[in-house]
Specification:
- It is a single chain.
- The chain has a 6-stranded antiparallel β-sheet.
- The protein is α+β, with helices and mostly antiparallel strands and 646 residues long.
- Helix 3 runs antiparallel to helix 6 (195-211) and helix 3 (113-131) runs antiparallel to helix 9 (260-272).
- The chain has 5 domains: 5-286, Transferase(Phosphotransferase) domain 1 (Transferase(Phosphotransferase), domain 1); 381-444, Trypsin Inhibitor V, Chain A; 449-516, Trypsin Inhibitor V, Chain A; 523-583, 2-Layer Sandwich (Trypsin Inhibitor V, Chain A); 588-645, Trypsin Inhibitor V, Chain A (2-Layer Sandwich), CATH 3.30.10.
């Protein structure tokens, strides 16, 4: 089998000569190469041959390679070329001399606040540029943040994780792709991802750079994924001025999380308030290529990490088989053919060789049997099905049919996955296992509880806004409004959810009913009498405002109260204005002009205005030439008017 080291010295695409192995991973090997056309050194990412057999991957890789090659940003690694050699895809990128952030962290270095703000701001700028062009990285981690000789950050591996997501051995529909220790909650839940997943991963990288630890890291990958679902970033004093920005960039809910452009602005603002950052202790490519003994195999949760170089000479790294040495094999033959001319004389010594051979065969057979049992050599293989989004009962049944055992880890809350459905599985779908193997599953506990904030003194609109910030809804039913002697009109008295009044916690996304105050309860208007001053004193003492009005009254003496509006006994809010009416006495009528009228005509006209005829002086058939009281005079209704006729 051809190894990565065996490829050194070969030429790809007729122009790129591989000179040293810079790193290796599950998906690709990275080489130092010489571009013989332009006479410059470049980096070659040669993908593993197994991926070349996957049509879906190749289709996606070609599309992604074209898109990534068009990126031109100072914080994104330039892709010069791409192609295929013997059907195996490769990318040609610029060669950077500063190594990676992983090299810095592996050396035990923790970044200062100034350095972390600078590195994060540059990485966020590169991500924002790519996101604006429709590219999501999906695998942001220290090993993918490279430095040039001046210490400038370059993001590498854009497009590779997206292409891997289309490979047949990965989970469908945007499942978990990328390094487990930096994966976002939505990646852990197998949900579709956007640029905010990259922001989450970058925040974890910066957290590790400052604190020396990766948040939520557990003993197993599935425990790591489970630990961060629905959980805010834990506080650490070492984060200093970056604490709040990192927490917002790592919000478990994407709608609350900063996007890359916002994260860049926040980090840029923080960096501007800090002293200038000191240069990072960077490791160069040449140094990495000269230290083959530092090679280490990639870890399970670091699928694409770049490790130190493996050269064609030097000691064989641990975990890598030494090449077959034909000469050494000939010199150390255990059982070989002996020519007849050199054979030992027939006798007891020759016959005693067979028991030893038999013993060797038995030992070898026993060893092989032990090996077969330990490795389950003869146990059939099965492919792990996709169980994400499947109910726990169905997942267990499906695994049982495949002769696999389901082990359920403690369930976790989820805002997207229904209760008892599988959120995470380990190993992922498409993995090949022996029958009888264990598949670990994490099921959803359903929606989490949310703490209800204090709504004291809030109007309906303010209460709705406050609850919306914690992903709750609110309604203020008019029928639920109540009077309150202590809570001002329009403010919240209480709230309820289900049968619980003023609950401390409710279910995520629930609708809370708000009770709004109608102000103090209404008070009946007291009965008043006497003068206006007396009535005013009584009403003011009861909490009302008072205004005066006058009206005629035949029954109530002048200056006395006739009535109130609203009427006495009507319940109204304190502070409401009550109108007090005061009597002007009986109403007055103006005597009309009756000159020239007959007695009958004058009588009718007086009756029309509420007056009557008194004495008539003169001939009954004559006409009126005078009335008393005279025309235009104001008299009480019903008064008599004397007529003078001629």
């Amino acid at each position: 089998m051809t190894t990565a080291a065996d490829q050194i010295g070969t030429t790809l695409g007729g122009r790129y000569r591989l000179e040293a192995l810079l790193g290796t991973g599950a998906s690709a090997n990275v080489f130092l190469a010489q571009d013989t056309t332009l006479e410059r050194q470049v980096a070659i990412k040669l993908l593993q041959p197994a991926l070349a057999q996957d049509a879906a991957f190749l289709k996606r890789f070609r599309a992604e390679a074209r898109a990534v090659a068009a990126l031109n940003h100072p914080n994104v690694l330039r892709v010069f070329d791409w192609g295929e050699e013997d059907g195996v895809p490769f990318l040609v990128t610029e060669l950077l001399a500063g190594g990676s952030l992983k090299d810095v962290l592996d050396a035990g270095v923790r970044l200062t606040h100034e350095q972390a703000a600078s590195v994060g701001q540059q990485a966020a700028a590169g991500l924002a540029y790519a996101h604006a062009r429709g590219l999501v990285h999906r695998d942001v981690k220290p090993g993918n943040l490279l430095f040039d000789e001046e210490g400038r950050v370059r993001i590498t591996d854009f497009g590779v994780a997206r292409a891997l997501a289309e490979a047949s051995w990965t989970e469908p529909a945007g499942g978990l792709i990328g390094t487990v220790r930096y994966a976002s909650p939505e990646q852990a839940e197998g949900l579709p991802v956007d640029g905010k997943a990259d922001v989450y991963s970058l925040s974890l990288v910066l957290y590790e750079s400052l604190s020396g630890t990766v948040p939520f890291l557990q003993e197993t990958p599935v425990a790591t994924l489970r630990a961060r679902i629905g959980q805010p970033l834990p506080h650490d004093p070492s984060l200093g001025p970056l604490d709040v920005a990192l927490a917002q960039a790592a919000s478990p809910l994407t709608e609350d999380r900063l996007d890359a452009a916002e994260f860049e602005r926040r980090l840029e603002s923080i960096a501007a308030a800090l002293p200038p950052a000191l240069p990072l202790p960077l490791a160069g490519v040449a140094e990495a290529a000269a230290t083959a003994s530092q090679f280490k195999a990639p870890s399970v949760d670091d699928l694409t990490q770049v490790t130190s170089a493996v050269l064609t000479t030097g000691p064989v790294p641990s975990g890598v088989a030494a090449p077959y040495d034909a000469v050494a094999d000939e010199d150390n033959t255990v059982i070989g053919f002996v020519p007849p001319s050199e054979a030992a004389p027939v006798g007891p010594r020759r016959r005693r060789r067979w028991p030893w051979i038999l013993v060797a065969v038995v030992i070898l057979g026993a060893g092989f049997a032990a090996f077969a049992i330990a490795t389950k050599l003869f146990v059939p293989n099965v492919t792990v099905p996709n169980l994400v989004g499947v109910s726990s009962v169905k997942a267990e049944s499906t695994l049982s049919k495949e002769h696999l055992t389901a082990v359920f880890e403690p369930s976790v809350y989820s805002t997207t996955v229904p209760v008892n459905d599988v959120i995470v599985q380990q190993p992922r779908a498409g993995t090949v296992l022996k029958q009888g193997s264990t598949v670990r599953l994490v099921a959803s506990r359903g929606l989490p509880s949310v703490t209800v904030p204090s709504l004291q003194g809030f109007t309906c609109a303010q209460a709705q806004a406050a609850l919306q910030t914690v992903h709750l809804k609110a309604i203020c039913p008019p029928a639920a409004q109540q009077y309150s002697p202590t809570v001002p009109t329009g403010q919240t008295i209480s709230y309820w959810y289900g049968s619980v009044t003023n609950p401390k916690t409710v279910t995520y996304g629930a609708t809370v009913n708000i009770v709004i105050s109608k102000g103090p309860p209404p008070v009946p208007i007291p009965q008043v009498s006497g003068t206006f001053a007396q009535a005013e004193a009584t009403l003011v003492a009861a909490g009302f405002k008072v205004t005066e009005a006058k009206e005629f009254s035949e029954a109530i003496p002048v200056g006395s109260v006739t009535r109130t509006v609203p009427a006495a006994g009507t319940p109204i809010q304190k502070g409401t204005t009550v109108t007090v009416y005061v009597s002007l006495g009986p109403p007055l009528v103006t005597v009309p002009n009756l000159h020239g009228k007959t007695v009958a005509g004058a009588t009718a006209k007086l009756q029309n205005v509420g007056l009557k005829v008194g004495a008539v002086y003169g001939p009954p058939g004559g006409t009126v030439f005078k009335e008393s009281p005279g025309s235009g005079s104001s008299v009480k209704a019903g008064s008599a008017v004397n007529l003078y006729v001629q």
